[in-house]
Amino acid sequence: MHRPLPYVFEDRTGANSSSDFDEIYDRSYFHIGRTPQTGRTKTMIYCMHTRATRHRDSQPLTKPASAILDYGEDESLGLISYVLPTGVVTEVMSKYLRKTSMFSGSLSRKFTASDGREYRWSYRTVPGQEWTCSVGPENFVVAHYDLKPPDVRAYGVSGHTLTVDERCGHILLELLASLNIMRHIALHNL
Question: Which Pfam families does this entry report, sorted A to Z (predicted)?
Fold first, then answer.
């Protein structure tokens, strides 16, 4: 019998705008980097074919980004774009990642993924989890981002992890992009 094996990504730096997310079982890899533009800053998310090395930032990326987070000049929410084989799909971030209710805070938001289901990110609602993503009326947890406890040593990495239920492997990029926006909202008090 096959037991689901969650995707566990090591966040190499813990920095929201420059990091590598390497899955510990070598199933998936992502690179996040910022590109300054005139008046705006774009955060690019790349689906990578290999695990990060300490030399990755010194080598130019020769492939297009899979997702582009185009923040405003003042770090306000801007546009999110997914680069698909059929073309680029762009949406306003505040419409893509909506507050869960009229009176909820900015750190509880939902989005509709490409599978048609509605996923909700929330900040520090589950003990030990910095960010939690749930789905459905039963609030089934499908992903969580965890910070390294301050009393645990980490050797050459941040110690932060993103864990995703194996059944959500088809939306890994969407979960990572929406998490990046949620962390940006918290970082800039939006």
Answer: DUF6593 (PF20236)
